[in-house]
Amino acid sequence: MRLRHLIAVLCLCAPLASARDLALVANKDSSVKSVALPELVKICKGQTGKWPDGKLVTFVTLNPAAPEMKLVLQKIYGMSADEVTSLIGTANHGRNDRPAVVVVDNDEAVVRKVQSTPGAVGLVDVYSITGAVSVVKVSGKLPLEPGYVLHGN
User: Fold this and answer.
1) Residue 2 domain-assigned?
2) How far is CA 9 from the centre of its chain?
3) How distant is the alpha carbon of residue 64 from its chain centre?
4) Residues 63, 103: contact at Cβ < 8 Å?
5) pLDDT tens across 70-85, in order?
């Protein structure tokens, strides 16, 4: 009987364990300190070409089909993974100098790419943040603050 209760508890807690709090991180040389949610949506969709300081904008992200992207698909894109993949292809079409959106395999790769690309930003799990990047406020709030839009629960 105890094993059955343990399995039930684990099944109930599994969705909570997969919820992630995300942070928008930027290249250390970026002058961007805060981004409104509508602006972030445009950046993620490859619709913003340059920052106010003239640097090219590059959004670094995980594969839209990755389970970790569920929150981003819901709160940022409002689309399916297939639709976002198609959108990324369209956003990058004809951008030979530098893609608008770069897809990488994991949060550590997001941090490395953002760190090495002037004007880049990316979304990562808050536990993947390092001193190599800066955290950017989204709609005036930092991760883990009440009301933060990219909270995973």
Assistant:
1) no
2) 30
3) 10
4) yes
5) 999 999 999 999 999 9
Distance, C-alpha 43 to centroid of its chain:
10
pLDDT tens digits for range 97-123: 789 999 999 999 999 999 999 999 999
Please list, in sequence order, all residues whose beta carbon lies within 8 angstroms of the beta carbon of residue 90, skipping any fewer than 6 positions away. Answer: 46
The total number of structural domains that make up the chain: 1
What pLDDT was estimated at residue 111?
A: 98
SS3 at position 77: helix
pTM, entire model:
0.85
Full residue range of the structural domain in which residue 77 is found? 20-138
What's the token pair of residue 51?
């920052």
* CA-to-CA separations, 36 to 9, 11, 74, in angstroms, rounded: 38, 36, 17
Query: Which amino acid is it at 35?
Result: V
Please say if the pLDDT value at position 44 is more than 50: yes
Residue of 60, 58, 62 lying closest to 99 (CA atoms): 58
